Amino acid sequence: MIIHNIEEGEYIEDKEALEGLLNLRLQEESIEKHKAIVQVVADDYYSWNKLKDYLLLNPSDFRSQLKVCENALQGNPKSYQPWYHRKFMMENFKEQREKYLGREDFLTKLLLDSDPRNFHCWSYRMFFLKTKTGRDVFNYSYLHHHPDSEDPLTIIYTDPMDPTSWEYFYLWRERKRIRHGMYIRRFRNRLEILLDKPFCGELSFESGGTRKTMAFELHTRIVVIDESIRTSERWKVVINGEEMRFIPEEESFRFVREILEEEPECYEALLVLLDYTEEEAERIAIIERIASLDPIRRGYYDTLKENFYCVYVPEIEGTPIE
User: 246 pairs with which residues across the strands?
Assistant: First the structure.
């Protein structure tokens, strides 16, 4: 019996579990015997295969075997066999599965909240979410026409090497930033105010006691302010008399590092990590890793060394900034 991160014989419970398993194997052949075995040893593929064969002949055992899977996952939530068996059940018993899909949603969310690096769970979650007719989360056209309908991190964790998932992440992030009409990018030597709709008229920018006013006769969606204005962490923009205050964006990118721990050559993850890395030496190191994966575009990647920017989003009263 394999128990992860525990030396054999370290606990008395190990010996008791082993004795219980040996007693189970000595019992007469029965489906209950194999149900009990997989709840002790979640990776026993022989007993899981016995359960599959039995379920194909006895669909009424569907609910019981779902419970067996859950019990097996309680002891080892990262074991492949219980997830594979559960997927087999959902694929082959479409009528029986319908009333349990809500439970699958709850179960996978619960386990992923506990351990977001449970990749078998991510894979299974994506499988059962795709049971909706016409839903294809790795099809860019589907994602483009269903904005905000999917969780980008769920898609990324399922297949981090698929560029479609990262393209959707960029779109999702941009929509989130501009959902209140505008946001600000602060580069080393300039600011850019990005607007969701073209505007013309008067724009005032205030920061650190300094005010700068500009007039635009032609419609624009990007306003560039040079470094001559003094900047701080809290800014105010007034467009044609409408005032909006800005604060730094709070966004976690821990998931990118987790992906790179599992897939160190994930090109898209490295590009996203570069977005959130300000220190110059770290940026150069990341760019070297990216260029080693895509040497043809090294010249372009070198231009990104000093292209870091911070993001500032509107401070909406009563609405927390995500």
Answer: 235, 314
pLDDT 10s digits, 104-116: 888 888 888 888 8
Tell me the C-alpha distance between 125 and 121, whole Å. Answer: 6
Span(s) in the chain for CATH 1.25.40.120: 12-129
Report whether 187 contacts 180 (CB < 8 A).
Answer: no
Question: What's the confidence (pLDDT) of residue 3?
Answer: 47
How far apart are the C-alpha atoms of 194 and 185, rounded to whole Å? Answer: 8
Region of 11 (left: φ > 0; alpha: ψ -120 to 50; beta: rest) is beta
Domain 12-129 CATH (choose: 3.40.190.120, 2.40.160.40, 1.25.40.120, 3.40.50.880): 1.25.40.120
- Provide the CATH number for the domain formed by 178-248 in this structure: 2.60.40
162-221 pLDDT tens trace:
888 898 899 889 999 999 999 999 998 888 999 999 989 899 888 877 888 888 888 999
DSSP 262-291: H-TT-HHHHHHHHHT---HHHHHHHHHHHH
Q: What is the pLDDT of residues 218-256, one digit of tens each?
A: 899 998 888 665 556 678 888 888 889 999 998 888 899
Find, among 75, 80, 83, the residue nearest to 6 by Cα. 75
Angle of helix 163-177 relative to helix 267-275, nearest 10 degrees?
Answer: 20
Does the pTM surpass 0.85? The reply is no
